[in-house]
Amino acid sequence: MSDRAPAGQFLDAAIGLLRRVRDEEADSITAAGTLLADTVENGGRLFAFGAGHSSLAAQDLVYRAGGLALMNLLAVPGVVGVDVMPAPLGSALERVDGLASAVLDSSPLREGDALLIISLSGRNALPVEMAMSARALGVKVIGVTSVAYASETKSRHASGTYLKDHCDLVLDSKIAVGDAELTLDNVPAPFAPASTVVTSALLQAVMATTAAALADRGVEPPLLRSGNVDGGHDWNGRVMERYRDRIFYRH
């Protein structure tokens, strides 16, 4: 580790990862944005799912100023963030077989929709089963994961496969196994995770691509405005009324 302060080192590491994503995932970002634009134009609905801290990036897409109004959170009880008590229960639930299928069976997902599945490791039963089951329904699946985990860890799904193996498109966040960017001789474990920063930026790049792709086709992107600017609530009310059959967080 260099003589620079840890804050600067972390920010440099995050910036380096963002540059890698920008340069190495450009084609995948374009493809993902195009897939979502196709879904919107064809009357489909958009959903995002993540477990634990991966849920933070999914939640950042939903009911978001400057974001697509049609993005809905696919919530799995007990794994959305770290609000469950005790918190380790959320990690345990990610490894439960059958949970994803039960959630999908009671969700509004249907053929023609698109689902973003965010899982840093992509190795647990929940995201793998979620991708497999969603595709079986005719849903397009975009996986957002660190591909490195597939070669450096063992899958926890009975099939021995990872999230990346069951997606129509995969976006690689480039995060190293362990999700910690810094080390110090006097600190016993690596620290300073960057996955939330990078994954959220990667997904917002996809959303920007989707909005631009729709506009290029002559379709007004269903975007939300900040409720803290004049006229924002009225704008959002009109958008949500127009697309009420595709927005589930309003009901």
From TrEMBL:
Gene3D superfamilies reported for this sequence: Glucose-6-phosphate isomerase like protein, domain 1 (3.40.50.10490)
Domain of life the protein comes from: Bacteria
InterPro entries named in the record: RpiR-like_SIS, SIS_dom, SIS_dom_sf, SIS_GmhA/DiaA_subfam, UPF0309
Occurrences of domain SIS (ranges): 36-221
PROSITE patterns registered for this protein in UniProt: SIS (PS51464)
Pfam families: SIS_2
HAMAP family reported for this sequence: UPF0309
Family label: Belongs to the UPF0309 family.
Stated name of the protein: UPF0309 protein R5U08_15850
Species assigned in the record: Streptomyces coeruleorubidus
Lineage: Bacteria, Bacillati, Actinomycetota, Actinomycetes, Kitasatosporales
